[in-house]
Amino acid sequence: MKTCKYCGKEFTYNRRSQEYCSDECRKRVKYEKDRAWLEARPGKSAEYGRNWYANNTESRKQAARKCYQKRCLKKIEKERNNL
Ligand SMILES: [Zn+2]
Prior knowledge:
Layout: E1 2-3, E2 10-11, H1 23-39, H2 44-55, H3 57-82
Antiparallel strand pairs: 1-2
This protein binds zinc ion (ZN).
């Protein structure tokens, strides 16, 4: 038996390296770690978002164009089928 490092529940382990009783606990630990990381760096996530936005202007435009083309093609196809 081993004790879960997150919730303290006892569990039987399959692997010796297993530290948590379930996937749920593992995910929660990861989530809390990520959140703590972001909280320790205020504004970082917003900064990342801004950087991404600034660095991907061209690919965003291309994606929008592709989307538009797809929509147009669909419209044409539909009209063709109606004839
Ligand atoms: Zn647990």
